[in-house]
Design brief:
The protein is mainly alpha-helical. It has seven helices and two strands. Strands 1-2 form a two-stranded antiparallel ribbon. Pfam families: IL15. Its main location: secreted.
């Protein structure tokens, strides 16, 4: 990783230097503009690192949500609500919209059952990160299932997303 970041910084130095001041051959010479403009380089490096960590953070959020569901499972199972439940094929077409539907249903159960559990904030946080796709069916179009079936399908869906 350090070798990659060093190479990345050299490339960034080269791109921000004026053509006449760029390194020649195998020498690494940092132009005066680059020396004077450390903030730009720092922000460019930060931007690149942000893109590199985006993929791993999505997996971590799913893992955190699975942990949260596991911890709240016994509390959620007390509900007798019937919830709109999407299928795996729906997830393949409209992943964020389906996950948004699941989170809204869970948030509704928490509200109706007046569950005040600190760990439940994970549902709100995860839901806020989703950007539902356009053209996907509304949550109410999915079949109604009891809480046990809903949680089982949601857990399987999240595990499947996490494994890909």
């Amino acid at each position: 990783m350090i070798v990659f970041m060093t190479a990345l910084l050299v490339v960034l130095y080269q791109l921000t230097c004026h053509r006449n001041q760029r390194a020649k051959d195998d020498q690494i010479q940092i132009c005066n503009l680059c020396r004077d403009n450390h903030k730009t380089q720092l922000w460019l490096s930060f931007l690149i690192l942000s893109f590199l960590t985006t993929c791993t953070s999505a997996v971590t959020e799913i893992e955190d949500l699975l942990t949260c569901l596991d911890e709240l499972n016994s509390t959620l199972q007390k509900s007798d609500a019937m919830l709109y439940t999407a299928t795996i094929s729906d997830v393949e077409r409209c992943k964020d919209k389906v996950l948004n539907c699941y989170m809204e249903e869970l948030i509704m159960v928490l509200s109706e059952e007046q569950m005040d559990h600190k760990r439940a904030n994970c549902f709100f946080h995860f839901n806020a990160t989703l950007i539902p796709e356009v053209g996907c069916p509304q949550c109410e179009m999915y079949s109604l299932q009891n809480i046990s079936t809903f949680l089982r399908i949601l857990t399987n869906t999240l595990q499947r997303i996490n494994s890909t």
